[in-house]
Every structure is written in C-alpha cells, then in structure tokens.
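Weekly modeling sync, notes
Attendees: S.R. (lead), two postdocs, one rotation student

Agenda item 3: backlog of single-chain predictions. S.R. asked that every request posted to the team notebook include the full sequence so nobody has to chase files. The rotation student volunteered to paste the first one in as an example of the format we agreed on. Action items at the bottom.

Example entry:
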Amino acid sequence: MKRSVRGCYQSEGYVFAKNAADVVKQHGLERVARLASNENPDPPSEVALKRGYEALSHANRYPDELQVTLHNALTAAHGNYPFVTGVGMDGVIETTIRTLVEPGDLVAISTPTFSFYRLSAIAQGAGVIEVPRGPRFEVEPVPFIEACEGAKLAFLCTPNNPTGNGTSVEMIREILEHIECVLFLDNAYVEFSDLDYLPLLRDFDNLVIGRTFSKAYSLAGLRVGYAFVPGWFRPYYLRAATPHTLNAVSAAAAVGALSDRHHVETARARVIRWRKELSGRLNYPAMPSDANFIMVDVAPLTSDEAVDHLARMGVLVRSCRSFRGLEDHYVRVSIGADWENEMCIDAFSRVIP
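Predicted structure, as returned to the notebook:
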C-alpha cells in the first residue's frame, strides 16, 4: 500500500536536528549544550506560565475560533494591524499557501533558506522557483523580482535561516514596488535585529509578515505563530484555516508573554552579546548575523562531520547539509545559555580537520 502515498512524500520531508537525548545516550554524556534548534535557553516568562495554567483549567472547552484575546494583545503590543494566527510559523505558512495557491501555481523562494516553504508549496501542488542568493548570501533583487513575475506567492526570510543575515527594509520596498504576487516575509528572528518592516504594511497590500513566539518569547514547545496581513486577506485565511488549531493554553501563554517585555529584552541582550563573542572566538569563520544563531564555515570538514565531532564533546549544533543551495561545509550554531556558549567555544577549539 505504500504506493498510495503521494509522490512528494515518497523521498523527502523536513530534516530535524539531532535529538539531545539520543546524543546523551550515544556518547555517555551527562548533559549537552543544545545549540541546534534556535531555541531560547530561558524558560517562559512567569506571566506566560500563569496565563497558560489558568487556561488549562478550561481545557474541556474548544478555544475561541477567532482568538480575540490574543489578537487584542497583539494590537496592544504592535499597533492596529489585521492579524492571523497559527500553530507556529509553520502553521501560518501552510495556511497562507492553502489560501492562495492552487495546483500548478508557481511559488518563488529565496534560497538557501527554511525548507518548509518548499515542502508546503509542493504539497499544495505548486511549482517552486528557487532564487539563489548572492556570494555572501545577500538577496539580489533583480533575479528575485523576475522570478516573481509568474508566481502567485513568494517567500523571503529575513533575518534568514540558516545564514543569519538580514535584508534591508529599502531592498524589501524595492522588491514590493516591482512585484504583483503576495510576498511572505518571514520575521521569525527579527526581535534579535534592528530591522523594522512594519511601516511597509501601510504602503503595500501584497505583504504578509510572519512572526513566532518560539524564539524571543521562549514558547517553542507551545507552537504559536502569527502574521501581520492585509485587511483583504484575513477573511480568506480564516476560511482556509483548520478549525481550532491554536489551542487555548498556547494562546493564553502567548498573551502573557506579550505583556513581559523584560523577558524579551533580556534574551535580545544576551543574543547580541554572545553573537559577537562566538563569532570572534570560534576557530572557524562565522557569517554576519542578525538572528539568534550564527552560521559557521567548517571547511574542509563536511557539515555532518563537524556535527559528529562536536556531539561527541557534548555540543549539539545543526548540520546545514539539508539546506538546498548551500554547500556542504556549514553548521548553524544557536546562541544558548552562558555555559552552553562557553562549552561550544571549547569544543570548536578541539575540532581539527
């Protein structure tokens, strides 16, 4: 019966980082530095935990299908924009594609980048146009604009995963001025940068800006994503969305997290400090980053060789081998807790080709 499985799932899927528990068991370690998944090492805000606990006592009821309380909290935090929500950024991406893309439509993607854009587009029956970045992983606007000419939807991640670099607001404006398709701007890591794309929403009705509570807000395990969208788009997104996907506990915790700016600022300050420290102290070159991770060139080692060397020393980083369009000698290193970062520096010093 395996032949009944759709062709797009026969040979590929999302590639996960090594599992921390498996690495501990395999190498007989007491603990590992978990620097593979761009998580926030701090636990959630106490306010977020309190709101989540309160919501748990009403878990016998379905959540509000419109997530009004969360939308009001997002408005209070960011301004009077139309919002949509989903189960993590992945859920927002998937529903956006479902809303706009029919089989045979084209989706343009700036690469190398987060693989889920491509996987979700193909699952919806779309054709994918991959637009390579420049030699320093910068977005080149002319090829991207040309790729968008026949596309229904385009994806651009900034700061970009896994390269870490951001794209200027001016360049995004230039792109929007010359395309007619919808541009999904993935801002999962924007809290760790000085980039602000929200003013563009006033001038363009084909811009969707996706964000997440997984990184700066420490809610990766609760899977809460949201997006700033044009007013015309929201009702169609709500029709396309799976009913009741964002659970009540996650939504309530997100409301609490939005009220605790100190938590986010603490995470941001640590990331900025350690991003610079790690970039200067690893014995391999790191790419400039605006995110809560850095991408490191480990040549002449391959990505997997470097990951295996570091795992034996208790440091878990992400191999970038699975990122399409990226040469096989990069690893992605998340900014962790102080002890994890120091452990990472020591382990890299002992990785010898």
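Discussion: group reviewed the output briefly. The chain has a mean pLDDT of 94.
Action items: rotation student to repeat for the remaining queue; S.R. to check formatting next week.
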